[in-house]
């Protein structure tokens, strides 16, 4: 995936400052590209050239980062973020203040991309059922350890950042859930999961003008939210 | 057959001696029914027609009246946005009757209502007044109950997936009773809430339950020793045992076996680990109105055998849907119709899985739509206005000529209320459906959107007072 969306796929010496900044951008790019509705748009063409969408996405991220950094100015006196809005963080379209690569090998061999938006920790679960790995199958979903690990991580983030509350938003492949039974949802109910409505694309049409925003969406996921 | 006669039937089954593996000689024998006797008991209950009779009927005339008044006020031509929204009728009198029925069937068992099932303030307040306690699964639920001036003594924190922050929070609010099922949880509790009264949650056979919990939650009996040992080493306050047989179970043998297993853990804790005698048995939830008589008959039999009166053990339960499912009726408005053929159509209503019918995804419920208003007439009392399957009710297609699928208002493929239903009426836009018995896991799980909690519109009635 990293190479498909135009990020480098060669080992980096992360001790060099320039390299680590590039690495951070790659992580941001990987997380945000999870919301590209058709990931084929990111795959290089037959001449091994990058598609324009990858470039458009990168440019958008750079622009959005400027806004995000302003939002994240922390005022030591008030112990608050200067431009902080309590409702800002729920939206996956907003860039995160922190990005994470999670690895839960007993759950899946795939990397799990995630980001923190103020009070919300957004975690995109890889599609387990498309995977051939022996570790990745439906029974892994019906297992609380991975979820508890994510809930603990979310809770720990709040310990460090001291928000009033912290919520975990899980983005689960819609195909995984619908094509293989909805048992996961029935079990999550017992531990307080809430189903979150997908974005209203009609509203988006009236509020956005840039093309790349239309190519991004959350329709490939069923979104669940947990209090932490 | 009267209740007394049922009691006699239960006590007439001979108890036999069954070896229970245990390393301690004093615990070699437990008096309990073997599988044959247990099966006989269950078969006796299944064949007992008295158990098929529901404890009471819903107050249909009062519910119908409330629906009719509300819909009658809506003028389709001039109404404001929101007036046609779906709404519930909640009969508080039904909850009172259900509580009375609980006390009649299970007088020894203190119910701790599962708040997650329906955290409506009026319901919580009424249940608190009646003397029901509360099972909370999150910080929000604990706060909600405590804000009603209810003592933390009346709360059990029974989330089977507890994050450290939740445990800290329970400690800060003096919520003492809590369940656990693994060693890691014990270490967290030792660190953040060492004085907590702990209930060891054991796994049960939930293979016949519609919502199976124990495959995910609960400690297998062969792992109990490690938990007892750890609790002892950490000096924690082990207060009892809990289990949950899953919701919607059809075979209540699991209840009997779970009580028996709980007794084994009680004995083991005292005799093998020198822990103080356990004081609490939490029999969990999963009770349903329709099968309440049968499940409680099995339960009474098991409790009389393993935890008889005078055994000095407090018995508690975590019922949720039993107390609220039948108290709520949902009405929703037909907002669109797409004809597929002369007698086939897709019907869209203004409520769905992202609203008050969340239970379709999160629970094992299948809401039953019935025609409420069609052709300028109310049809509430026609309880057979629709059917999910023609064969099941031995009705012909001629009686139910219209085949429909029913969808919520979003464009999401998940938002399907019923894939295939047969109707007497050719419903059109502007008609109303009603969905009976929809009080559990519905509005409580409704979507939070744009930071605002979605609240259901509820018309309250009290059929015990009105």
From TrEMBL, chain A:
Official protein name in the record: OAZ1-like protein
Classification lineage: Eukaryota, Fungi, Dikarya, Ascomycota, Saccharomycotina
UniProtKB/TrEMBL annotation, chain B:
N6-(pyridoxal phosphate)lysine: residues carrying this PTM: 116
EC numbers, comma separated: 4.1.1.17
Pathway given in the UniProt record: Amine and polyamine biosynthesis; putrescine biosynthesis via L-ornithine pathway; putrescine from L-ornithine: step 1/1
Catalysis performed (reactions): L-ornithine + H(+) = putrescine + CO2
Cofactor: pyridoxal 5'-phosphate
Domain Orn/DAP/Arg decarboxylase 2 C-terminal: 88-439
Pfam family, one: Orn_DAP_Arg_deC
Location of the Orn/DAP/Arg decarboxylase 2 N-terminal domain: 92-325
Annotated keywords: Cytoplasm, Decarboxylase, Lyase, Polyamine biosynthesis, Pyridoxal phosphate
InterPro entries tied to this protein: Ala_racemase/Decarboxylase_C, De-COase2_C, De-COase2_N, De-COase2_pyr-phos_BS, Orn/DAP/Arg_de-COase, Orn_de-COase, PLP-binding_barrel
GO BP field: putrescine biosynthetic process from arginine, via ornithine
Molecular function in Gene Ontology: ornithine decarboxylase activity
GO cellular component: cytoplasm
Active-site residues, record numbering mapped to chain: 411
Enzyme category, top tier: lyase
Gene3D superfamilies xref list: Alanine racemase, Lyase, Ornithine Decarboxylase, Chain A, domain 1
Subcellular location: Cytoplasm
PROSITE patterns listed in its UniProt record: ODR_DC_2_1
Free-text function comment from the UniProt entry: Catalyzes the first and rate-limiting step of polyamine biosynthesis that converts ornithine into putrescine, which is the precursor for the polyamines, spermidine and spermine. Polyamines are essential for cell proliferation and are implicated in cellular processes, ranging from DNA replication to apoptosis.
Family per record: Belongs to the Orn/Lys/Arg decarboxylase class-II family.
PANTHER family membership: ARGININE/DIAMINOPIMELATE/ORNITHINE DECARBOXYLASE, ORNITHINE DECARBOXYLASE 1-RELATED
Subunit structure: Homodimer. Only the dimer is catalytically active, as the active sites are constructed of residues from both monomers.
Stated name of the protein: Ornithine decarboxylase
Lineage per the UniProt record: Eukaryota, Fungi, Dikarya, Ascomycota, Saccharomycotina
């Amino acid at each position: 995936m990293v190479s498909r969306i135009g990020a480098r796929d060669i080992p980096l010496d992360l001790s060099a400052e320039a390299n680590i900044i590039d690495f951070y951008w790659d992580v941001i790019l990987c997380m945000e590209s999870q919301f590209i509705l058709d990931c084929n748009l990111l795959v290089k063409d037959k001449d091994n050239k990058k598609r324009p969408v990858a470039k458009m996405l990168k440019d958008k991220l750079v622009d959005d980062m400027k806004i995000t950094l302003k939002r994240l100015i922390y005022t030591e006196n008030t112990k608050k973020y200067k431009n902080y809005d309590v409702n800002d963080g729920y939206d996956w379209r907003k860039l995160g203040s922190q990005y994470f690569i999670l690895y839960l090998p007993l759950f899946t061999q795939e990397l799990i991309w995630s980001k923190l938006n103020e009070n919300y920790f957004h975690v995109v679960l890889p599609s387990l059922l498309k995977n051939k790995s022996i570790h990745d199958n439906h029974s892994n979903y019906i297992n609380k350890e991975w979820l508890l690990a994510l809930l603990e991580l979310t809770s720990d983030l709040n310990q460090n950042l001291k928000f009033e509350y912290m919520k975990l938003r899980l983005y689960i492949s819609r195909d995984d859930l619908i094509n293989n039974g909805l048992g996961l949802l029935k079990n999550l109910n017992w531990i307080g999961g809430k189903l979150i409505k997908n974005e209203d694309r009609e509203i988006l049409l009236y509020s956005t003008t840039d093309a790349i925003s239309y190519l991004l969406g959350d329709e490939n996921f069923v979104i669940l939210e947990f209090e932490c | 057959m009267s209740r007394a006669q049922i009691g006699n039937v239960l006590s007439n089954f001979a108890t036999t001696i069954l070896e229970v593996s245990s390393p301690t000689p004093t615990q070699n024998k437990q008096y309990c029914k073997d599988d044959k006797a247990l099966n006989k008991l269950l078969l006796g209950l299944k064949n007992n027609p008295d158990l098929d009779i529901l404890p009471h009927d819903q107050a249909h005339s009062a519910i119908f009246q409330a629906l009719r008044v509300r819909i009658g006020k809506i003028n389709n031509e001039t109404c404001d946005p929101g007036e046609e929204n779906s709404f519930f009728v909640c009969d508080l009198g039904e909850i009172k009757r259900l509580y009375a029925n609980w006390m009649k069937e299970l007088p020894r068992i203190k119910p701790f209502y599962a708040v997650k099932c329906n955290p409506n303030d009026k319901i919580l307040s009424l249940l608190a007044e009646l003397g029901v306690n509360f099972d909370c699964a999150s910080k929000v639920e604990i706060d909600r109950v405590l804000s009603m001036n209810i003592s933390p003594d009346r709360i059990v924190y029974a989330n089977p997936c507890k994050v450290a922050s939740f445990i800290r929070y329970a400690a800060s609010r003096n919520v003492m009773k809590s369940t656990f099922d693994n060693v890691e949880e014990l270490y967290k509790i030792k660190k953040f809430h060492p004085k907590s009264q702990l209930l060891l949650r054991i796994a049960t056979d939930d293979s016949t339950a519609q919502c199976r919990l124990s495959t995910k939650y609960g400690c297998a009996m062969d792992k109990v020793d490690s938990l007892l040992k750890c609790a002892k080493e950490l000096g924690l306050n082990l207060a009892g045992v809990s289990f949950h047989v899953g919701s919607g179970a059809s075979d209540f043998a699991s209840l009997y076996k779970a009580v028996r297993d709980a007794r084994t853990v009680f004995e083991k804790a005292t005799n093998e680990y020198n822990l103080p005698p356990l004081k609490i048995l939490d029999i969990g939830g999963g009770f349903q109105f329709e099968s309440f008589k049968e499940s409680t008959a099995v339960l009474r039999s098991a409790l009389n055998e393993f935890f008889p009166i005078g055994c000095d053990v407090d018995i508690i339960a975590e019922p949720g849907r039993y107390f609220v499912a039948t108290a709520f009726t949902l009405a929703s408005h037909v907002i669109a119709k797409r004809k597929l053929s002369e007698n086939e159509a897709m019907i869209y209503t203004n409520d769905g899985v992202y609203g008050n019918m969340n239970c379709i995804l999160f629970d094992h419920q299948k809401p039953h739509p019935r025609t409420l208003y069609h052709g300028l007439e109310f049809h509430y009392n026609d309880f057979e206005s629709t059917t999910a399957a023609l064969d099941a009710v031995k009705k012909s297609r001629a009686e139910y000529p219209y085949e429909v699928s029913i969808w919520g208002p979003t464009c999401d493929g998940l938002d399907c209320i019923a894939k295939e239903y047969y109707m007497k009426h050719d419903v059109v836009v502007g008609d109303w459906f009603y969905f009976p018995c929809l009080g559990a896991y519905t509005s409580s799980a409704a979507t939070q959107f744009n930071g605002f909690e979605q609240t259901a519109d509820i018309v309250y009635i009290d059929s015990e007072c009105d």
